[in-house]
Amino acid sequence: IYYAQAQYEKAIKMNLRAQKYFKQSEDQWAQADSMRGLGNIYYMQARDKEASEIITEAQQLFQKIGNELGVAECLKRLGDISLMQDRYDEAIEMLSDAQKQFQTFGDQLQAAECLWSLGELYRKQKKYHEATEMILEAQKQSDEIGDKEGVADCLETLGYLHMDQVQYDEAADMFSNAQSQYQSIGRIVNVAWCYQHLGRTYRFQGQYEKAVEVFTEALELFKEFPGEKYRIGYTLLSFG
């Protein structure tokens, strides 16, 4: 619950308490899964070193007990961390491997998430054609299984891709659609991010009144999330 609400410090405390009991119970799967969960929280906080260390440890434990799905999930997150650190070749290898494994297991949700991450990777490399292909395929797969959050993530990334290519009208459409999707599933912090992206788009177009309006909306929403101090600061700076 705390993780979904972006209350990461509370989520960490609960996770560490759970790990303590799992170790006492000698349930290695639960122990590995809680470690992977803690690594995901660190990842969301951009604590890459800590995330990488604990997820690698979880991966080894999953490997030990023969849980291949757990191994693939750890591989996916390690690929995401490599992407954040601009280690692109390493990230492509990990994410592609994880995507194939998820496809084999019939886990379309996580296979789509790998495609999304690969799309992000190609976007960072300015390979816009490859990035768009990956994101559209991820969006298609997410839509097929009714994953509204996955669809919203893809729409948001397509907005970034249009922004990168100075296609502001298309970017605004994508961010607006993503915002509506996030609103429908209660992902309020993501709604705030979309307002922020829309504000940047309107500012680049010289539509300053619209920009102020959506930046204000973003700021009001971010105030509900103590862990989003950077976003609050960035939004305030955007008014300058």
UniProtKB/TrEMBL annotation:
<dbReference type="Pfam" id="PF13424">
    <property type="entry name" value="TPR_12"/>
</dbReference>
<protein>
    <submittedName>
        <fullName>TPR-like protein</fullName>
    </submittedName>
</protein>
<keyword id="KW-0677">Repeat</keyword>
<dbReference type="InterPro" id="IPR011990">
    <property type="entry name" value="TPR-like_helical_dom_sf"/>
</dbReference>
<keyword id="KW-0802">TPR repeat</keyword>
<feature type="repeat" description="TPR">
    <location>
        <begin position="192"/>
        <end position="225"/>
    </location>
</feature>
<dbReference type="InterPro" id="IPR019734">
    <property type="entry name" value="TPR_rpt"/>
</dbReference>
